[in-house]
Design brief:
The longest helix has 16 residues, at 184-199. This protein has helices at 54-61, 84-94, 110-121, 126-138, 154-166, 184-199, 211-214, 242-250, and strands at 10-22, 27-39, 43-48, 69-74, 77-78, 95-99, 172-176, 204-207, 219-224, 227-233. The chain has a single domain (40-66, 83-253), classed as 3-Layer(aba) Sandwich (Rossmann fold), CATH 3.40.50. Helix 3 (110-121) packs across helix 4 and helix 5 packs parallel to helix 6. Strands 6-7-8-3-9-10 form a 6-stranded mixed beta sheet. The chain is an alpha/beta fold. Bound molecules: adenosine-5'-triphosphate and magnesium ion. Magnesium ion binds at residues 54-55.
C-alpha cells in the first residue's frame, strides 16, 4: 500500500505574489508573480541583484506592506485580505525582524531591548522579564544583561536583535542583510546563532548579497526582475560543528572586556 506523504506544516504559503508601485509616469512591477511555500523549520536565503525585488518581498513577508495581487497565507490567515490593524497586530505578535542596522534603543539595556515587542503587545511582567534574560543568555549575552547598546560590539548588538526577534515566538525570523555590517568572524558568530535556532526548529528567511552567507542556509531563492529565477536546496551546505554551536551560550561566562566598560 502506498503511504500518504507526511503533512509538512507551512510557516507561509505565497502564491502569484505581485507588487506594483504606481508612480506619476510609470508603474514599477517590483514583484511579478512569485510563488513558493516555506515549510516550518526551513532556512531560506533570498538573493538577487540590486533592484530585483528582495526588500519588496521581505516587506510583504513581514506584513509591512500588502501585495497588489496574489495571496500570502501566514498560519491560517491570508495577509492580503487583512485590515491595517490586523496587519500591525500580526507583525507585532508573530514575526521576528533582524535588520542590518540592529535598530536597538540606545537608552535601554540589553534585557529591556529584548522586551520591546512585548511592551507593544502589553505583555510585560515578571515572567516575560525572565524569558528575556533566558533569550539573552541563549545568544551568549548572559553577562551583559544591564549593558546598553553603545557598550556592546556590533556582533553583540546583533545578538540582542536576534534575541528580540524571538521574544514573540514568531512564525519566522526575517533577516535583512543581518551580517552586512559585520566582519567575517562576527558574521560567522551570527550565522552560528541562526543555525542553532534553526536546529531547534525555528524558520529563518534571510536576504543576503553574499554567496558565502547563503551557503549556511538550506535553500536559496534567487530573484531577477521581480521573478524567481531559481529556488533550490543548497548543495554542500556549510554547517557549524556541534562544539562551535555549544560555545555560543558558554560565551556568557566570559568576563567583561575592558574595552566595553
Ligand atoms: N516605494 C517604492 N516606490 C517605487 N518603486 C519602488 C519602491 N520600492 C522599490 N521600488 C522599485 O522596485 C524594484 C525592487 O526594489 P527592491 O528595493 O525590492 O530591490 P532589492 O532587490 O531589495 O535591491 P537592493 O539589493 O538594492 O536592496 C526597484 O526597481 C525599485 O526601484
Ligand atoms: Mg533591498
Amino acid at each position: 500500500m502506498i503511504q500518504p506523504a507526511p503533512q509538512v506544516e507551512l510557516a507561509a504559503q505565497i502564491r502569484d505574489l505581485q507588487k506594483h508601485y504606481v508612480l506619476k509616469s510609470e508603474t514599477v512591477r517590483a514583484l511579478r508573480g512569485v510563488s513558493f511555500d516555506v515549510p516550518q523549520g526551513d532556512y531560506v536565503a533570498i538573493m538577487g541583484a540590486s533592484g530585483s525585488g528582495k526588500s519588496t518581498l521581505l516587506n510583504l513577508l513581514g506584513c509591512l506592506d500588502r501585495p497588489t495581487f496574489g495571496s500570502f497565507v501566514l498560519g491560517d490567515d491570508d495577509v492580503a485580505k487583512m485590515t491595517d490593524d490586523q496587519l500591525s497586530n500580526i507583525r507585532a505578535s508573530r514575526i521576528g525582524f533582524v535588520f542590518q542596522s540592529y535598530n536597538l534603543i540606545p537608552q535601554l539595556t540589553v534585557v529591556e531591548n529584548i522586551e520591546v515587542p512585548l511592551y507593544y503587545l502589553g505583555r510585560l511582567g515578571t515572567k516575560s522579564r525572565e524569558r528575556c534574560k533566558k533569550l539573552a543568555t541563549m545568544v551568549g549575552l548572559g553577562d551583559r544583561l544591564s549593558h546598553r547598546p553603545t557598550q556592546l560590539s556590533g556582533g553583540q548588538q546583533q545578538r540582542v536583535a536576534i534575541a528580540r526577534s524571538m521574544v514573540n515566538d514568531p512564525y519566522f525570523i526575517l533577516a535583512d542583510e543581518a551580517t552586512g555590517n559585520l566582519d567575517s568572524v562576527t558574521t560567522e558568530e551570527i550565522l552560528a546563532i541562526f543555525q542553532m535556532l534553526n536546529d531547534e526548529g525555528r524558520t529563518i528567511i534571510m536576504v543576503t548579497h553574499e554567496d558565502e552567507v547563503s551557503h549556511y542556509a538550506k535553500r536559496v531563492i534567487r530573484l531577477k526582475d521581480g521573478e524567481i529565477m531559481f529556488d533550490q536546496p543548497i548543495e554542500n551546505r556549510q554547517i557549524f560543528c556541534a562544539e562551535r554551536i555549544s560555545k555560543i551560550s558558554q560565551n556568557a561566562d566570559v568576563k567583561m572586556d575592558d574595552s566595553y566598560s
